[in-house]
Structures are given as structure tokens and as C-alpha cells.
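User: My instructor asked us to take a sequence, write out its structure as C-alpha cells, and then describe one feature of it. I'm not sure where to start. Here is the sequence I was given:
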Amino acid sequence: MFIDSHAHLTGHTVIDHVEEMLERAKMHQVKAIVNVCTDQNSLEKGIALAKRHRWIFNAAAATPHDVETIGDTFFSIVSKLAREGGLYAIGETGLDYHYEH
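Assistant: Let's start with the prediction itself. The C-alpha cells for your sequence are:
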């Protein structure tokens, strides 16, 4: 059994292929995936995805270089979902040297 502890299933680059990706994950014994949502759009899609697939668990996070642009609006949605039990984690940790911010 495997658990993917950090995926971006509802990001704009993969959302069109997410169902095929989930089928492949199931074939390879992945039993749970933590889907990290980093903006309002990916979070809304993540909530819908988790309703269809009970083995998907959403986390919400804002990367440091996006906080100023998504800030208060996104955080109020995250706060509401956290209080309602719609999130399993808040935050994202990583040393991302790919981007030069």
C-alpha cells in the first residue's frame, strides 16, 4: 500500500488528466493522496474531486511568492473549510529551488 503525501491533482496543468492519473494510482496500490491546493480554483476543484473519490484528502497552502496576490480572499475560504472539516491539512513545506523568487 502507498500514500502520496504531496500531489497537485487540481492544478491547471494536470486537472484535465486527473481521472486517468487516479486510475493509474489505484492500479499501483496507491490508497490515499494528499492533494495540495494553492489557490481558490484548485481548492474548489479539490473539494469536488474529494467528493467523487473518498481516498483524496485536501490540504490548502499558499506559496510565499503567491501570498500577496491571493492573500486574504483565499485565506478566508481556507479558514471556513478548516472549521467545517473540509481540509485535512493547512500549509506546504518545501525547499523549492526551481523558482527564482
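For the description part of your assignment, you could build on this observation: The chain has a mean pLDDT of 90. Try explaining in your own words what that tells you about the chain.
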